[in-house]
Amino acid sequence: MAERQHGRAGGTVVAAGLMACVCLGASGCGSRGSAAEDPVHALHEAADALVDAKSSKARTSMEMATGGTRVTIRGEGVYDYTRQLGRLRVLLPQDPAGRVAHRPITELLAPGALFMKNRGAGVPADKWVRVETATLSDGNLVTGGATDPFAAAEVLRGTRSATFVGTTDLAGTEVWHYRGTADLSAAARGASGGTRDSLAAAAKGFATAVVPFDVFLDEEGRIRKIRHRFSFVNGRHQATVAVASTTLLYDFGTPAQVRLPAEEDIYAGRIAEE
User: Fold this and answer.
1) DSSP label of 77
2) Are 213 and 228 in contact (CB under 8 A)?
3) Per the confidence metrics, is the pTM higher than 0.70?
4) CA–CA distance, 133 with 11 (Å, rounded to integer)
5) Are the CB atoms for 13 and 115 separated by under 8 Å?
6) End-to-end distance of the chain based on CA atoms, in angstroms?
7) d(CA 254, CA 131)
8) Residue 165: its H or E element
9) What are the pLDDT digits (tens) for 127-173?
10) Most buried among 2, 134, 142, 267, using CB within 10 Å?
11) Beta carbons within 10 angstroms of residue 190's beta carbon
12) Any residues with CB less than 8 A from the CB of 173 and at least 6 apart, and which?
């Protein structure tokens, strides 16, 4: 990856080479049956169902492909949906020789901001890099190597069309599978204040504002798994990069204590290119 930051609050990161429902039983028949009949409405409400759940654990996977090269970045952590705060430990891919080229990155997700530790050459080990997500051409749906779980849910507020695929089992939980497309511009208009500007930036910065997705909701309408497919043009090489971002949410209600870094712990200098 290569990145640079200008200033403390308005930083810009450039990533190079990267960047439900059928009722089968008596319980819940009304809500799941109606959701299958009106999947668009069910998906518009998915983010609100996460807020009702308060918090969860999360696993992320981001696959990027350009030319004949494919890389996968994985993350794991917790998320507080009431405060829109999350913490992820992100693992970058190995180099061609099979060695891990980078230390794991700690990421803190907050409304309008992304904080990263161990991200960027020349940054002291005890300092954080802060990036304003609205300054990123992808709104941080891709740059951080993991899509913010709540932003992933709010993308569904822009759902234009969706179909109910069927029910299936996901890690022992019955889920309702939907497939459709969302418009990022519409998602931004319907999003909460914490993600509105970021989604608006992504609508302008991606190769297309239309995002195909597959999503699996549980009985309570909460997202258990969501997969988006993004497309953007790498500014450095002018090559189209296809991105498949998958987020798994589980253990709802688990404690998710996230503390943002103090101002003096944020790096204000320039990040050297790696």
Assistant:
1) E
2) yes
3) yes
4) 9
5) no
6) 6
7) 27
8) strand 159-170
9) 999 999 999 999 999 989 999 999 999 999 999 999 999 999 999 99
10) 142
11) 15
12) 218, 224
Give the residue among 223, 244, 224, 240 at the shortest CA–CA distance from 232.
Answer: 240
Structure token pair of residue 174: 């019955």
Neighbour tally for 162: CB within 10 Å: 22
* Residues whose CB falls within 8 Å of the CB of residue 70, separated by 6 or more in sequence, listed in order: 63, 64
Contacts of 11 (CB under 8 A, 6+ apart): 5, 129, 130, 131, 132, 135
CA–CA dist 205, 201 (Å, integer) = 6
pLDDT exceeds 60 at position 257: yes
For residue 173, give both structure tokens: 């939980």
**pLDDT tens string 92-130:** 886 655 555 567 999 999 999 999 998 766 788 889 999
